[in-house]
Design goal:
With 156 residues, this protein is α+β, with helices and mostly antiparallel strands. It is built from four helices and six strands; from the N terminus they run E-E-H-E-H-E-E-H-H-E. It is globular, with a radius of gyration of 17 Å.
Length: 156
């Protein structure tokens, strides 16, 4: 995820799943976070979960624009829970696995029986904080109105 200040001084958050070499590649290779959240809100779903393990430093260090380090705060539409791998203005640890530290722990808890999403997130936060020595603390923003389990079969 990249936060860059536009010419109009507006801070724009982009999702990036590619290597960027120059600033002019951002609009072609990245997706505006606000565009995605707007589309989700238009869908009128009662539940949207967005997990972001992409809080890295500026991939275009030669950029002439202001670029924030790490994660920026974003507001979630009603019924949406935004879950970030680390807290605002921080950078996520890469970890030693094929997945980053946050994703590694998230994957461990997703299939656990009878684990409601709020409890799941608290357990992931605890494990990530322990493994990184407190350098990385997963963060969430938003609210959901219902109880949600990733593993519904476990409730039978």
């Amino acid at each position: 995820m990249l936060v860059i200040e536009s010419k109009s001084k507006e801070k724009i958050t982009y999702f990036i799943d590619t290597k960027l070499n120059r600033e002019d590649e951002i609009k072609r290779k990245a997706i505006s976070a606000s565009d995605i959240l707007d589309k989700m809100e238009e869908g009128k779903s009662h539940l949207n979960l967005v997990f972001l393990d992409a809080c890295s430093n500026n991939p275009c260090p030669t950029s002439s624009r202001s670029v924030a380090s790490g994660l920026t705060s974003m507001n979630a539409p009603s019924g949406t829970l935004l879950v970030f791998s680390t807290n605002p203005s921080n950078v996520a640890e890469d970890g030693e696995w094929k997945n980053r530290t946050y994703t590694k722990h998230l994957l461990k808890f997703l299939d656990q029986p009878r684990l409601e999403v709020g409890m799941l997130l608290r357990q992931v936060r605890t494990k990530v904080k322990e493994e990184t020595g407190g350098k990385q603390i997963p963060w969430k923003n938003g609210s959901i109105k219902s109880t949600f389990y990733f593993n519904e079969n476990s409730l039978k």
